[in-house]
Amino acid sequence: MKPLNIDFVVRRPWQQPLATRSRAILIALGGVAVLAAAALAWQVLQLERQLAESAQAIARAGQEVAGHTPPPRPPLFLSAAQVLAINAAIGQLNTPWPALLDAFESVASADIALLQIEPDYRRRLVKGVAEAMNHQTMLDYLAALGAAAPFARALVIKQEINDKDPNRPLRFSFEALFDDTPGKGPASDRATPQARPRERR
Q1: Given 42, 44, 65, 124, which residue has the most CB atoms within 10 angstroms?
Q2: Among candidate residues 145, 89, 148, 86, the one with its CA nearest the CA of residue 119
Q3: Looking at the domain covering 86-178, what would its CATH class be?
Q4: Cα separation of 95 and 193, whole Å?
Q5: H helices within the chain, ranges in order?
Q6: For residue 157, what are the contacts with CB-CB under 8 A and spacing of at least 6?
Q7: Angle, CA 117 vertex, CA 115 and CA 131 arms, to 5°
Q8: 60 to 48, 54, 55, 68, 70: CA distances (angstroms)
């Protein structure tokens, strides 16, 4: 019988044969790799769970926002009459009131009673009604008004004797065209307003 070579001495790891140490190292590395793979898989599962929870939270928040958001308002359509009214209001706001009132004040006279003024910015003029003691006073007033900035000229539209007044003044309607272009003043060659034939009631 061949004798067996049995070594009962427990050797330390670095004293064992190279093949034995290599196998031990490989087994240890394999164990570490398995643990690392398990840890990585667990982290991936945790990340997927967190992403799913975040997606659900975002979906719930979107539903809540949609539930509290009022429906969009229908588009606003203006009728032709409304557009005209808005444009008229804008024109009134754009009327150079200070300059116009200054012009009327500059030609005010005790012989003229200014009863009414109405601006028409679209036609760039002011309509007015006034009373004068006589025909010449009316012409002088309109000539002075047409020469006062920002007016370009003033024209008689209608005239009549006010029989309801004991003094029987001459009531006349006029239109004064204005030019509010910056830097423009009264022109020296403006025509004297021409009176139309008198109209009696």
Answers
A1: 124
A2: 89
A3: alpha beta
A4: 23
A5: 18-68, 80-94, 97-106, 135-146
A6: 127, 172, 173, 174, 175, 196
A7: 30
A8: 18, 10, 9, 13, 18
